[in-house]
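call fold(seq) -> tokens
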Amino acid sequence: MLREIACTPTGELVSAAAGALFLVLWGSVCHVIVAHVLIAQIYYLRSGEVEEAHSLISDMEPSSPPEYILKGVVNASIGQANGSRENLKLAQQHFQLVGASASECDTIPGRQCMASCFFLLKQFEDVNIYLKSVKAYMYNDDAFNWNFGISLANVGDYKAAEEHLLLVQSERYQREYCYLSWLARCYIMNGKARLAWEIYLVSFIRIFVCMLCGNKSINGREVYHQ
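ret:
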């Protein structure tokens, strides 16, 4: 399954989070993209209008690293929104082309591209290596902390995952199902079931958190009962 970019811990696709995991790439390329069509694509992506961005970029043949990155972002967004393996595969290929290139492999965008490529391949240990290498430059970036938090949780480093997820400041991100479900999982695995219960009380993912708490209680984890 290639939907892990915006999946909950139990595997459901979260279309509302489409593209959020790749927002971290935009800031580093926007200043060099001057073509109006590419600017329009970025606008559509920022607005959550993934289909419109895809319609603009589908026939474009990229010729520079920023164009390859943007096409990768669009394909990743449309792929996770629609569950399209083809689009996710294209995204992985575009990210790899940039990240493995001699001119970009040691740049921040290049390393972010390799992290995104490995994210699509579910190779989270490799994702963490690349994200850790640019952490000093991206530490206050919401999308970076979203990405890193989820990737760390996927390898069982729930303490570090919780720390990065809590660094996310965007209220829009904080309301999303994907974010809340991963944060709840981290709380439970870190012995903070009371905080997971508070997510249950204030969010729209009550059934999910109840199921998650129940599963972990069977394994002997702490569960808070009100």
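The radius of gyration is 18 Å.
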